[in-house]
What does this fold into?
Amino acid sequence: MISGPRSAAPESPGGSPLPRSVLLLLGAAAVVVVGAGIRGAAGIVAPVVLALVLTIAVLPVAAWSRRRGWPSWVGTGLALISVYAIVLVLVLGLALAVVKLAELLPQYADNASKITDDIQQSLTTLGVADKPASTASSQLDPGKLVTLVTDALQEVLAVLGSFFFLVTLLFFFVAAVPASEARVTALRRAKPDVAAALARFVSGTQRYLVVTAIFGAIVGVLDTGALWLLGIPLPLLWGLFSFLTNFIPNIGFVVGVIPPALLGLLDKGWGSAVAVVVVYSVLNVTIQTFIQPRYVGATVGLSTEVTFLSLVLWTYLLGALGALLAVPMTLLVRAILIDPDRRVAWVTPLISTRAEPAGTPSGD
It folds into this structure.
């Protein structure tokens, strides 16, 4: 008996002979492997990405110089001065906050002991056993608080403290900008979709930095004035600290409120600490949690929930500096893996503030 021609086995979309479930599992495994590699090399990846983001931030300086007809070396020099100034402000702001807090806390040792005794007595009155109450209240010891604050910022300062490595990266990145125009032109001819996606990454990163800096300046000024009115020590420093922590998406105010609230508690008691927390909650939560994310989302095309998840992911992979780089890193991953490939264009509406994918890139 002669059988008819055997029908071809159905293929999954995209022409792959593997079932979609297998492709998803392979993709998930690849993500885990790459994530483990990034986390293992965080000491190199984090400063490289930071240098890339800072270089993108000062690109308008070089462009402004070219528009005025100045030589390219003048634009490169101005860009280098600008980017080194940014690094200097970032390093000094974080280091000064740690140093000043470490200097001030021991001065309030007696107040801390009194508050600790009051907390322990209150917990015991509420029925908490003496040992757990003593353990909980002992966390207010100034020496332990200095250690906790120092450890919390140690990773950021360690990366930024590798000054020679970061300065060298920035020098080569900024110096390579004038020569990159020919490479970008060649990339546009060979891979127009990839070039367009990277261009959107650069413009999105610049807009994100500008919007975040504007809102950070507003928050810093308001916090400085409020802390000055409340009589908190070093209000100008904590205003600068609020500006810096504003670059941490969604939860930056939580980090920024800790030093002034702690000093308010040790200096003037619970009323001052509560007042600081209330003021920060009214100002910072309103601006950073409700207003700023809407502008940031509209600017970079990432939804609020994706921004928060990116914060969690990149902090886990890159450490404390990953919190500062969460949004640019997510934009970079999107530009490399999603935007240039129409086969994964369906992902864009799931992570973006727009209902439709940005552009209609063609497949390779």
